[in-house]
Amino acid sequence: MSERSESATEKIMSSIMDTIADNLPKQKSGHFDPGSVSDKVKNKLFGRQKTLHGVLGGGKPADVLLWRNKKISSSVLALATAIWVFFEWLDYHFLTIVSFALVLGMVVQFIWSNFSNMLSGSPSQVPRVELPEELFVNIAIAIGAQVNKFMCFLQDVSCERNLKHFVVAIAGLWAAAVIGSWCNFLTVIYIGFVCVHTLPVLYEKYEDQVDDFLYNLLGLLRDQYQKLDQGVLSKIPKGNMKAKKNE
């Protein structure tokens, strides 16, 4: 029985993949939802009515993510890449880099304070380097707000009794766990950072093509799920819960 069930499952999955591969370039977006062509003009994918710049929050962060200023965006991406290269490729550690930076700063201050008197004839006061407390407070508030939003999202998905959303969230966490087993936390953060700084601008450039492709894919997956439901899932016997409760 187990071999037969496995072969049947393989046939169903192969049929789904073959259908997607054969029909995806030929399908139209209207196949996903009849009459949705006019809706797609008004509402973008997932009901988005705002511009992509507005969805990303607007302001300078959105400008950086959408490469409105290429110098700033490329500098941010280059800085993140340099940090990742230092820690991953060159096998530096955070404490090592911090120690080297502090040593370099102390050497510069030592030379400045001791040789400036000899060169100028008057003692030169070395400027104090102090980071503002508001910087750390703002960073902590921003991180805490994002963590709270993520936790609220997971709680909402768990309590809204929507099986599809629940399964998608579980699959996303499982995928994150698998990716985390392949590489360390810093690499995962760097990959996410690169995706955040490249995918939005690519989506903005090829927005219509991506939306059409995703609508076609969702339509095909919906059709295949209906076929699977009618052919397999609907035939699974279900117990009469009401009768059991009455007994």
TrEMBL record:
<keyword id="KW-1133">Transmembrane helix</keyword>
<feature type="domain" description="Reticulon">
    <location>
        <begin position="61"/>
        <end position="247"/>
    </location>
</feature>
<dbReference type="GO" id="GO:0005789">
    <property type="term" value="C:endoplasmic reticulum membrane"/>
</dbReference>
<protein>
    <recommendedName>
        <fullName>Reticulon-like protein</fullName>
    </recommendedName>
</protein>
<feature type="transmembrane region" description="Helical">
    <location>
        <begin position="97"/>
        <end position="115"/>
    </location>
</feature>
<dbReference type="Pfam" id="PF02453">
    <property type="entry name" value="Reticulon"/>
</dbReference>
<dbReference type="GO" id="GO:0009617">
    <property type="term" value="P:response to bacterium"/>
</dbReference>
<keyword id="KW-0256">Endoplasmic reticulum</keyword>
<feature type="transmembrane region" description="Helical">
    <location>
        <begin position="166"/>
        <end position="193"/>
    </location>
</feature>
<keyword id="KW-0812">Transmembrane</keyword>
<dbReference type="InterPro" id="IPR045064">
    <property type="entry name" value="Reticulon-like"/>
</dbReference>
<dbReference type="InterPro" id="IPR003388">
    <property type="entry name" value="Reticulon"/>
</dbReference>
<keyword id="KW-0472">Membrane</keyword>
